[in-house]
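Note to self: keep these together.
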Amino acid sequence: MGEQVSDGGRKTAKAARTAAAAGPASAKKAAPARKTPAKKATAKKSAAKKAAAKKAAATKAVTEKAAPARKPAAKKASAKKASGKKAAPAKSSAALKKAPAPRKQVVAPKKATASVPAAPAKTVAAHPQGESRTALVRRARRINRELAEVYPYAHPELDFENPFQLVVATVLSAQTTDLRVNQTTPALFAKYPAPEDLAAADPEEVEEILRPTGFFRAKTKSVIGLSKALVEQFGGEVPGRLEDLVKLPGVGRKTAFVVLGNAFGRPGITVDTHFQRLVRRWKWTDETDPDKIEAAVGALFPKSDWTDLSHHVIWHGRRICHARKPACGACPIAPLCPAYGEGETDPEKAKKLLKYEKAGQPGQRLKPPQAYLDAGGRPAPPLGAG
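Structure:
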């Protein structure tokens, strides 16, 4: 134990001497060893300062970057507001676009139903809806050509020998048949052959003669009045101008055109009930006013065709294309007619609906033209004949 202590003591003393011999050099070397913790602390502080500075710089950079980021956000918000303002018209326009939907559901079917009244159920021929003007003119003229072949002997169905008799007979034909007028006028013209005679006639006597034609009092007033006008204004002669004829009592455009076309050879369209019915069935016009019908149909044909066209259409209306039940199955122009199928389409049943010479029956004139008789037509019997 003692030896160990003495040895240790010797070693410690020896170390002390060595350190003393080393002197200042060793002291200098030792000093840095003691200063190292201080330097470390300083370095730590400086590193901390640098880290804080970097952190501050990073924070600043982030703040600076964040500031522009907020500006777009503000712009985005303002854009949203602007889009909100713009969106309002979009919604209203969308509402406007959606609004017609219920209208289509409610209104459109009614219009469609009104424009084609029961046509699909009855019509066999194609409906000329959307037909061009050129196609309409061609179809109308073809119908007239076909009717001219069916009725080559067509003529005015009132008996007359001069313009005076024709104008009186035409006035009397209102609200009655031409046959009834033809059966009545022989007695009238036998007693009053000239305008001067009828102008001075006793109204009661004239009424008695005209009684079978219906509305005889009004018709008596008209024929006596127009006779007086002819005597006083035109020297007892029937004028050959439209503007003069329509001034006569009881004479309208229809009567005037009958007289002009058949007594003077001047073209005119006679728009009677048969003519009105057929041109609407054929879709030549949708007009209902006689003057407008005259203008619309007249525009489809050359003026030279007007008088014969009137005869063809009226004859067809009286013989085949009747008001209540047309004989569609016996109609020669069925392929051209948009209203085909409104009447009887069975050929055998349709033949039973034909009238006058088409059914082997007498016509309406007591004294028809020779061409009519040559074509197989039969004259009508006089009034009172069985």
